[in-house]
């Protein structure tokens, strides 16, 4: 908890002056220069941001808290004229708060653990899953069937409860795309054509309703279908692809151990190996070829525009510190978004389907589509 250096009143880091004595708070200048951290979800926000880009919580100062103290002292201090106190640097100091309770997350996080796969969902044939790649854990969420009589209007024959909004793409940003069922995103023959996007297949992905739920299905497109992360972190497996801004990366896995020496005891010469566990990250260039390759040690590999372990360069859709790969002690890796403004997208397996909710974002080619409720 922060307290005023002069009158010990509780303070909020976003305040510019003490609500009790009027002393200037220099710490607020730092948040305006370096950015601020959300009180609700601990996500980093760029300078000047008024609403948290991760959870939507307001970053404005909280209402002033009354000064603690006995009633007679409060009455006497109220009668005194305000004191003229010259501002000093870093007048707010950290003290322990015995009544502090951690802030609970407003929504449950369902993306941290893998749900065991007990087979195809009800209503899906087993043949549709034959040969399909394993489900990414970040979307391995058990889907419960809709309760009887509680299905949205789409299951009752009324208008669908969702539509799509083009957040970024071919210049029609903000356009609303109505959903009617089995709506295909792709080339000129699709329900929603984007003829100027060369990265879209004629049938790239399909949006359909089933049991009152909206699903997106990848149609085996070369470029793939990507979903924006909606949890704190997701496991990474070798070969997984993810997108940050306009940069496409591939996780190459952890660095394998050194090969054993020859029968005569001779070892292969080469550059020094990293001291600890390390991972390989590859940049995937247009046309499906590999660009830059990074070998970085753990436990944390930050990715962003500049000042990170992996600097991806100038990209208007990249935050300075955009995402992070976390390397656990057991050799597994996780991908975490660092509260970036434009999000981190992970590719779903070809021919796989995922349930969508209000606010989810899907990336196909250069188009970023947001799911919105009516």
**Major sheet size, sense and barrel closure:** 10 strands, antiparallel
Strand order of the largest sheet: 7-6-25-24-12-22-14-15-16-17
| Mean pLDDT across every amino acid position | 75
Let me know the number of strands: 25
Indicate the structural class. mainly beta
The rough form would be described as flat
Query: What fraction of the residues are assigned to beta strands by DSSP?
Result: 25-35%
Radius of gyration: 26 Å
Low-confidence stretches: 67-79, 88-95, 103-156
The count of helical stretches stands at 2
User: Roughly how many Å apart are the termini?
Assistant: 41 Å
The residue fraction in helices comes out at: under 10%
Series of H and E elements = EEHEEHEEEEEEEEEEEEEEEEEEEEE
Defining key terms:
single chain, 374 residues, mainly beta, 10-stranded antiparallel β-sheet, 5-stranded mixed β-sheet, 25 strands, flat
């Amino acid at each position: 908890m922060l307290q005023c250096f002069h009158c010990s009143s509780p303070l909020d880091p976003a305040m510019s002056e003490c609500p009790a004595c009027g002393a200037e708070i220099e710490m607020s200048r730092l948040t305006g220069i370096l950015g601020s951290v959300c009180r609700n979800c601990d996500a980093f926000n760029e300078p000047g941001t008024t609403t948290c880009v991760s959870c939507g919580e307001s970053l404005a100062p909280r209402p002033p808290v009354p000064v603690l103290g006995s009633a007679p002292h409060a009455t006497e201090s109220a009668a005194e004229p305000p004191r003229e106190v010259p501002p000093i640097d870093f007048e707010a100091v950290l003290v322990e708060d015995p009544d502090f309770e951690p802030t609970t997350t407003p929504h449950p996080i369902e993306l941290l653990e893998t749900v065991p796969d007990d087979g195809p969902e009800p209503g899906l044939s087993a043949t549709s899953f034959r040969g399909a790649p394993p489900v990414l854990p970040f979307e391995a969420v058990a889907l419960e069937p809709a309760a009887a009589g509680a299905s949205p209007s789409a299951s009752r024959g009324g208008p669908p409860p969702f539509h799509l909004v083009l957040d970024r793409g071919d210049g029609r940003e903000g356009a609303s795309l109505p959903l009617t069922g089995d709506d295909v995103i792709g080339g000129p023959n699709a329900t929603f054509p984007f003829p100027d996007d060369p990265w879209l297949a004629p049938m790239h992905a399909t949006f359909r309703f089933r049991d009152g739920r909206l699903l997106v299905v990848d149609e085996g497109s070369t470029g793939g279908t990507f979903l924006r992360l909606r949890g704190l972190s997701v496991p990474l497996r070798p070969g997984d692809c993810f997108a940050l801004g306009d940069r496409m990366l591939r996780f190459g896995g952890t660095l394998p151990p050194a090969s054993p020496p020859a029968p005569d005891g001779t070892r292969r010469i080469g550059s020094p190996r990293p001291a600890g566990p390390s991972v390989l990250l590859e940049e995937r260039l247009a046309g499906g070829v590999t660009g830059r390759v990074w070998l970085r040690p753990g436990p944390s590999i930050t990715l962003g525009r500049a000042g990170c372990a992996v600097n991806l360069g100038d990209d208007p859709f990249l935050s300075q510190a955009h995402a992070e790969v976390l390397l656990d002690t057991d050799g597994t890796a996780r991908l975490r978004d660092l509260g970036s403004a434009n999000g981190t997208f992970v590719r779903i397996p070809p021919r796989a389907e995922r349930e969508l909710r209000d606010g989810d974002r899907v990336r196909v080619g250069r188009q970023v589509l947001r799911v919105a409720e009516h």
